[in-house]
Amino acid sequence: MSVLVNKDSKVIVQGFTGSEGSFHAQQMIEYGTNVVGGVTPGKGGSTHLDRPVFNTVAEAVQKAGANVSIIFVPPAFAADAIMEAADAGIEVIVAITEGIPVKDMVAAKNYIKNKPVTLIGPNCPGVITPGEAKVGIMPGFVFKPGRIGIVSKSGTLTYEAADQIVKAGLGISTAIGIGGDPIIGTPTKNAVELLMEDPETDAIVMIGEIGGNYEAVAAEYIRATGNKKPVVGFIAGQTAPAGRRMGHAGAIIGGADDTAAAKMRIMRENGIHVVDSPAEIGETMVRVLQGEATNA
Known about the structure:
The chain is an alpha/beta fold. It folds into two domains: about 1-120, Rossmann fold; about 140-295, Succinyl-CoA synthetase domains (Rossmann fold, 3-Layer(aba) Sandwich), CATH 3.40.50. Helices cover about 35% and strands about 20% of the residues. It has nine helices and 14 strands. The strands form two sheets. The chain has a seven-stranded mixed beta sheet, sandwiched between helices. A seven-stranded mixed beta sheet has the order 9-8-11-10-12-13-14, with helices on both faces. It is globular. The mean pLDDT is about 95. It catalyses: GTP + succinate + CoA = succinyl-CoA + GDP + phosphate; succinate + ATP + CoA = succinyl-CoA + ADP + phosphate. Pathway: Carbohydrate metabolism; tricarboxylic acid cycle; succinate from succinyl-CoA (ligase route): step 1/1. Belongs to the succinate/malate CoA ligase alpha subunit family. Pfam families: CoA_binding, Ligase_CoA. Heterotetramer of two alpha and two beta subunits.
């Protein structure tokens, strides 16, 4: 089993015929993802990458049975694309677009909150279930099938964590890049919960960064489960100065609990095995699974 996406997912690409959409759709197809078409208003009825192009998401759902969408739409129109997909009955929306205006995301998140849809992103690398489906921009060759789940705010560190896990002789069930914008569809806790409830995930890597309280909320949830699955954690931005945005729009220290040191302390207090460097993720996970590691 996997979470969010698998070999049965029927994926469409919003912004299909643009340069970014075309490039990454081709990569996803080559990986083996079941891309059933794409959406570009005004180009419906044509084909692109040997797949049908639809004018609307509703048409793609009706004619191709699409249930997952990945969005490569410019920031000014991306929130509308999210709402259109949710309206059409798409179950999982992966918004890759970076720089969507905050007011637009407030409206989009409010619009979809009572709909049966999971939004990943925006400003994220996507979701991958190795060997089954890649719905995102991650380098697929890094990810090998296994039983370790990954939840990460950072795209690059998602790939690094996967590489560490694979080099340690383990593999990945599903990796979820939640995105680094201030307003995202699926916070850390919600993504961790998906993997906690997945019977084919044995342990989780949780990667956060400075700014916000996502990691603290997730850590408290993990403790509330009785730490039923071991979690190895890392926080990026340990040298970031207060008040300065580092990389992601959401990576800015706004208070005492927003710093990397504070988040690492909170995670340790809640039973998470925290590492000081991403280079330690793989070896720590092996020790945790063997019962040798502590969270000190």
